[in-house]
């Protein structure tokens, strides 16, 4: 993105103490922060913007390590188990690796987002308030600045943590599946053209053999349609949908998970950074998501109206049925 | 239930355009086809699809924007996971893939609207299905995660039905030796559980919810098996459980009445 005066003013302002050894490296957020023009403090005393960056970096530091660690640990295990099961008869380790990456990145990113958002909001509020007050700024000005600045920049800050989780889990899952990749490569070299079986996985179950064809994997590897399931992980949005009814209606009518372009949801300057995050990690992801949206080609409003009308009749009834099943857990 | 029909529905789960309907249909028939858990687990891609359904709902949690339609859809996916959690041949696989942990963000919500209440209740149902078969591996797994604080919070603030499932989970953890030891190991843990049970008893004086009372009494009784907890309960067992407050509600439930007497007996023992 083009460098703003703000960028020039702030670049290089990350404190050296924020970059200790062994910690997750934080990107320079200065060019991407939003300073709301309504905030009197920023126009009256532009120097305070530097304090905002400090408060944001400190808040990220306080939260990022445990959130990333936990999200990565969970996502890597789930990915390892499910990919090993689904790719037990797939001899191409590249297909396996690609699926594992897409799944692990989405799961770790989603878990990191859902875990960090609320704690991060509270931490940001506290740190920003404290740093402004301790610099002798007036209470009433500080309150206004804190609220607007946190809500303007929360998604950006969450995206930093999400990106860290996605990067770390990619390495982690490759480590978990290293033996699986190697076995496939060896098999192809030693027995070219022979079907591949992961006996560790397949011998553990009596069941897959009795499933009908499309539901089980075949010795000649996975079909394009089957691989699509894992590619779909790249299409799930990890940020909140826009508040207005239009976009939610469109996704509802598509009948799938929300398929929005993740970048589109970041406000203002954050979009540039989020684009760098997502685009840098998975160059083809956004294009795929956009293609998919265009391909559905439905009339959102009409479809949504029909869908909702139909659903509403069933909702009440279904929620009652569901509760019966919870009773059954207890009573059995 | 016709096997072919089940296979068709499971296959539809893999197609994003047919998935919504397939989730609904399968959750309706899940009790009628015994091997559904096996089909769901071993069919290519189904578990990954169900995880996609779960994480797709995360952005709707904060700020709370989960609609009834979205709640129903994710709850149908959860109902299928409940089926997998419940089956003897898939339960351990489900645990080893860390699947229960994806439900914790749902349990951690506090919005009181119906879609959220329903989401928490259905998520608790999955954990309830895991614990009801008294598998020590399940208890070890749950203890190593933050399920107890999540259950305790729902026991304080949830709907009556959610409270019941949450206390059922805590009770099942207590019934396990490791679980009882874990909860009584530090005063802070014991105190957290005892405080929530105490508040529940005080609420029960008003609501007289029999089923909830039954679980509360069983939790106290089990806590009294641990010497240190027994000692503490002598001080902090709430008054309504010491006097005749619940005599009327308990009179037709011989088992619970016996548990209650046993509890008082355990606490009285060694007092003199």
UniProtKB/TrEMBL annotation, chain B:
One Pfam assignment: Rcd1
GO CC annotation: CCR4-NOT complex
Coiled coil stretches, renumbered: none
Signal peptide: none
GO BP term, example: mRNA catabolic process
Homology family: Belongs to the CNOT9 family.
Protein name: Rcd1-like protein
Source taxonomy: Eukaryota, Fungi, Fungi incertae sedis, Mucoromycota, Mucoromycotina
